[in-house]
Amino acid sequence: MRIVIAEDDPLLREGVALLLRAEGLDVVATAGDPAGFLAAVDEHRPEIAVVDVRMPPTHTDEGIVAAVEARRRHPELAVLVLSAYVEQAFATELLACGSARLGYLLKERVGRVEEFMSALHRVADGGTAIDPDVIAQLLTRTRPGPGLDRLSPRERDVLALMAEGLGNAAIAERLVVTDGAVHKHIRSIFAKLDLPPDDRADRRVTAVLRYLERSPSRPR
Q: What pTM value is reported for the model?
């Protein structure tokens, strides 16, 4: 797996690179700013990029803007975004662009090597990974909205795990229930959120977006 890392903190940038190389992965380039990141992606055509949300010059959303541009240039690129804080607007923006090959993790997750590597591989394999701590914090802020207030506590648990990017089997294992029970809960979630089958949209992504968008954004 070929990886490009974009992180303005040199210690964290090199630390992540060393970690990934120790896991047998090919870090082909690192960059400390958006321009360098985009140039590296164009040159090396990696399978996945690990990108900091806040980068120079303003340290606001340059990383997200660069990630979106990199995906525009190379639609097959997987992107795992790292953030020091829960910034719901960025997580929602990423999913709104399509959930395939996208992840959003808190930087502290890097130190939990097994979880970080699991998320990295899930994103590289075409899935979604949203930090469970992000989901937990958003859950406490969620305002009742159309359909969401009709979900049972167990259905909200299932939707939160869907938001992390877990598949049905992983959700069943986490909740200690059967796969059939998870299928039943997901069907009920779709029904309560008025999400009929539609070839133009992924109902899992739409349900997660509906869930995330009910949470107020963290002040920047």
A: 0.71
3-state DSSP assignment of residue 198: coil
Same domain, 15 and 99: yes
Q: Are residues 112 and 22 in the same domain?
A: yes
Q: Is 15 exposed, middle or buried (0-12, 13-18, 19+ CB in 10 A)?
A: middle
How far apart, in whole angstroms, are the C-alpha atoms of residue 37 and residue 7?
A: 9
Structural domain boundaries, residue 152: 136-212
Residues 114 and 159 in one domain: no
C-alpha R_g of the chain: 17
Q: Are residues 31 and 15 in the same domain?
A: yes
CA torsion sign for 81, 82, 83, 88 is: positive
- Taking alpha carbons only, the member of 35, 27, 34, 22 closest to residue 5 is 27
Encode pLDDT of 110-152 as tens digits.
888 988 999 999 899 988 888 877 766 655 555 555 567 888 9
